[in-house]
Amino acid sequence: MPDLQSFLKTLISTSGLSGHEAPVRCLIEAAWQPLVDETAISRLGSLHGLKRGSGPEPRPGLLLAAHMDAIGMMVTGHSDGLLRVTEIGGLDPRVLPGQLVTVHGRQDFPGVVVQPPSHLLPPEVSGKTAPLETLLVDIGLLPEQATQEVQVGDLVSFAQPPIELSDDLLAGHSLDNRASVAAVTHCLELLQGRSLQWDLWAVASTQEEETLGGALTSAFALRPALAVAIDVTFGAGPGSPSHKTFPLGGGITLGWGPNIHPALFNAFKELAERLEIPYKLEAMPHHSGTDAYAMQVVAEGLPTMVVSIPLRYMHTPVEMVSLKDIRRAGRLLAEFAALLDDKFMEKLAW
Amino acid sequence: MMPDQELDTPAPPEIGEAQLALLERLCNACAVSGDEGEVRKIVLEEVRPHAGQVTVDALGNVLVSKTGQGEMIPRKSTAGQARLRVMLAAHMDEVGFMLTDDEGEGIFRFDTVGGLDAAQLVGKPVYIGKEHVPGVIGARPIHLTTRDELTQKITLESLRIDVGPGNGGKAHIGDRATFATQFARLGPSLLAKALDDRFGVASLITLVQQPPPNIDLLAAFTVQEEVGLRGARVAAYSFDPQVAFALDCTPANDLPPWETDEGRIENTRYNTRLGAGPAIYLADSSTLSDPRLARHLVQTAEALGIPYQLRQPGGGGTDAGAIHKQRLGIPSISLSVPGRYLHTAAGIARLDDWKNTFALIYHALSRLSPDLFALER
Amino acid sequence: MKALIQKLVETDGPSGYETNLRSLVRSQVEPLADQVWVDNLGNLFARKGKAEANGLKIMLAAHMDEIGLMVTHIDQAGFARFMPLGGVRAQNCPGGRVHFLNGARGVIGVEKLDDPGKGPAIDQLFIDLGASSREDCPVKVGDVAAFERPFIDMGSRLVSKAMDDRIGVAVLIETLRGLKSSPHEIDFVFSVQEEVGIRGATTAAFGLDPDLGLAVDVTSNGDTPKGTKMDVHLGKGPAIKVRDAGMISDPRVVAWMIKTARQAEIPYQLEVLEMGGTDARAIQLTHAGVPAGCLSIPCRYVHSPSEMVDFNDVQHAVRLLIALLSQPVGLE
User: In terms of CA atoms, which chain A residue is nearest residue C241?
Assistant: First the structure.
């Protein structure tokens, strides 16, 4: 892997909307292959990278899940050469007008999301936010070309190129959750040449933004002893309430709530303190909003944990993240994998 | 199936003072969804001396299996298996709060866990964390509130849990809190927080201690029911039972309706009525009960003269909602004690309703036979 | 096939109470399938064929249940209140007729509305069964009814209640009948409780754990006056689902369906449905995950008592399914 920043820039410059993750998966697989013993693709398209442990069989496994799918849009129809779209994942329609996009038709077409002037919108929208169904994507083609080249169901990705704000700060789309994919990759790098007792499954999961289906089915297939979801969380920034956010570059968060096994939380907390990795407890009173929600209730149930990286402006094309935090997450995960021994599961007794 | 008078089922254990004392301990314990340790401890103490196999799974469910005895019942069974593997589920968790932000000076912002109406919270004492640190949810004095504000609904955003200036170190972000209400007996009724579902937990403990001998009892004391039926889901996957019952507590909204000039408006949405006996479920948002089990419960109640009511089909959900969809599908139904003011600081229920609920489930289990499933759903 | 459709839509099977319908479907599929069975929730399975070396285990699902209602209360004057089973729309109810599984019939009335412009809520509706007191009301709490509306054959357009998803059931039966040879083991699943949350297909898919799954269900349309903007039209062929609110179809399955339709010269449309979900979701998410898709029959006025489909779309759907199943599956 090249350095973290250029790897992450490549990751977010490669498409992979929910349910259609193949392009970005190829890139991640190429990065992981030298770092793991084997890779495989699940039936729903998730990437599984296995770093085999050295403990006796049957060996328990640790599953690290970072979803690789991104939010975006999908074409629903044509209107005088322009495209109507719907969302993939959750989008705020107020952010969309004027955004540069790529329409993945017969070939990739650059385009822009446009909001028609108010007198052309339905009267009930007048003076209010224009909902997504009233917005259009213009790819500059003539109507007959557009219907020829783009069909219903084609994908629309954000085209905003990555923005390097400093050596440490990167902005762009799809950092949710490619930042975590980079963290897991960093973890695998740190483990190079180190022997683990447990098996380590690195999973780049699919469809998190829609159904959590990738992590659900991969956890069912792999049946690890422990599962950790790595995702982004709300970074403190303008407009976001301080009690629900965490400072960018100020460290990672450790989830706490019903989706998290309390003893697993404690193990991560003690480890973070020992490694002097700054962290904050992130209260998740109900649904953690991550792959952990699905993985916890797979089959007979799994002890799950959530590790998060603060990110500003989530679900916009200018998400912002600190590479320091990504490295911290990667290091914490690597050291956690390294400390797992044949006694660890006893700590999880209720 | 005809009610079978010849079937001499064993007499159920009584719900007596010992069970009431158990219920009191259970109701006064604090066990918000995801943090069920206090109730789990009581359950383990109570079931360990009596149970065959007891495990605590990855989510914290207590799973108890107890093998039945012999083939004494069902007498008329034509199916190959003598004993059914029967899952009973009661959830240990209750609705409550989690502290989410420390504003200093003992003041904490909090979020609700499970279905709680913010209007029910204001002015209530609470216990925080494993040490039951006392705190209050305060309200602005009426003197400092405008007339217009008095008509506005109170929002969760505006509320705080206050452990008192100087006590800030006693509570922490992530701590759970519940209402501080203490169990009390009011004539024929019981008043407590968390009757939903400590009734079920107390019933299921009693069943484990003195089970009907004809079945393999698979008791699941579940976690996280109030945040999405999550414990029951994995418990059912583990047990893979042939049939399942959720023992729960359901609202009795049988309060007097408003009177108009023409007279009283009939209350058409009471869900259940206090004092009318155990509530048998036909449908809620999570489950369409197996009709064979609904018939079995009704016939058992009628054969034995146990009062019962049909819970009004409608919203809500129980552990049965998660259980019946596991694996190849599990015939499931719920049976509840009716209770007023559930998911508030103080619920009220009738002792007789609990006694009758327990009697009904015990007899229904005693009379359960594989014949019931000879007919397709 | 029209006679079969008529029989299917005129048999009542609200969610959770599919017994009558299951008997009818079983009588149809038993002579055609190798093996027929019913599971704990009431799903009906009909298995055909054995997977050859280049074959797969394929699950096809169409749900037997339809939306309906269950009685929650009988008042002193003999009127019944109800809860919906599935996505019943209150505005479609007033004046409608219902048919209870015990044979009783009723009409739906509505309370005086404070704001008639807003339309009623479900709890402002009641069923009048011609009773004058609670005692002489022919139904009780928990009794279940389906909406009543006769089948109309308009030539190419067919109208009835419960086209959702009896038309899918009919397509599956006709596919089973028409399929002459296949390298696959195919499980035709007639599922239950789809309308209340895709419950039957969840356990059916778990039991089968297929290599590939397709649901056959109805979808919405965008071809009525001032309707939803949706690029699906009655009569332009069955729709290959790209996504709905519950599932993103496996892109490999979508590509295979498109390719097959083109090769067989069967008209098709591509469907992006912004709400709703089908049994395919349950198939996709079972076990270690299953490549899944959905073949949809465009349908107007879904969840009203007068659901309309185009018979040509239905016949093309059968042809497309047979074309898909007759050959080895190439997922790319």
Answer: A153
- CB proximity C289 to A under 8 Å: yes
How would you write B166-179 as a 3-class SS string?
Answer: CCHHHCCCCCEEEE
Choosing from B94, B225, B259, B266, the catalytic residue is B225
Residue B1 pLDDT > 50: no
Q: Which of residues 209-248 of A touch B (CB under 8 A)?
A: 243-244
Say what the pLDDT of residue B77 is. 44
H helices present in chain A, as ranges: 4-12, 22-32, 143-149, 175-190, 213-222, 262-275, 291-296, 323-339
Higher model confidence: residue C228 or residue B306? B306
pLDDT band at residue B71 under the 50/70/90 scheme: low
CA distance A65 to A63: 6
Task: Say if the Cβ atoms of B268 and C200 lie within 8 Å.
Answer: no
Instruction: Tell me if ipTM is over 0.90.
Output: yes
Mean pLDDT of chain C: 97
Give the confidence band of B341 by pLDDT, cuts at 50, 70, 90.
very high
C270 contacts A151? CB cut-off 8 A: yes
**Chain C residues within an 8 Å CB radius of B268:** 72-73, 75, 81, 123
CB count within 10 Å of CB C292 equals 30
Task: Give the pLDDT confidence of A195-204 residue by residue, as tens digits.
Answer: 999 999 999 9
Q: How far apart are CA A43 and CA C326, in angstroms?
A: 23
Fold of B96-179: Elongation Factor Tu (Ef-tu); domain 3 (2.40.30)
Contact C41 B327 (CB under 8 A): no
**Distance (Å) from the C-alpha of residue A285 to the closest C-alpha of chain B?**
6
A332 Cβ contact list (under 8 Å, min separation 6) = A252, A268, A271, A272, A275, A277, A279, A307
User: Quick check: is B225 catalytic?
Assistant: yes
User: Do residues B316 and B284 touch, judged by C-beta distance below 8 A?
Assistant: yes
Q: Where are the domains of chain B?
A: 17-94+193-259+269-373, 96-179
| Residue B266 binned pLDDT confidence (cut-offs 50, 70, 90) | confident
Query: Please, which pLDDT band fits residue A281 given cuts at 50, 70 and 90?
Result: very high
Which domains does chain C carry? 2-66+161-326 (3.40.630.10), 68-148 (2.40.30.40)
Write the class of the CATH domain B17-94+193-259+269-373: alpha beta
Size of interface A-C (CB pairs under 8 A): 81
